[in-house]
Amino acid sequence: MATRTAITQACRTIADAYGKPDKWAEGMAAILAENPGLKLPEWVTDEGISMAAESWCRDESHPPVAQELRSLALRLSRRPQVSGCHDCGWTGRREVLQVWVDPETGQERRRHAISACTCEKGREYTMHAVYTEVVRAAQGRPGFVSVTVTNRAHEVITARERMGEQAWAEFQRQARARGQGMSREQLDQDLRATIGRPELRRQQDLYAQPSHHDRGEWEL
Ligand SMILES: [Zn+2]
Question: Is the pTM of the predicted complex or chain greater than 0.90?
Answer without folding.
Answer: no
